[in-house]
Structure prediction request, 66 residues.
Amino acid sequence: MENAVNIAETIKPLTDALTGSITPAQIVGIIAGVVGVGMGFVLMWFGVRKGISIFKKAVMKGKISA
Prediction:
């Protein structure tokens, strides 16, 4: 149990520095940025799949559809 107390005392300055330098607004901003970039990748993925599907149909059946 003594080691746990020593570790807590050792980590305390680090946790104090982190909680003092990071604000909730910054955390929300980071999460919003990650969600925005993720949505972009998802939409790009669906677009690429649709494009490949259109290309395959055009080659196999000779038809181009939207």
In short: The longest helix spans residues 24-61.
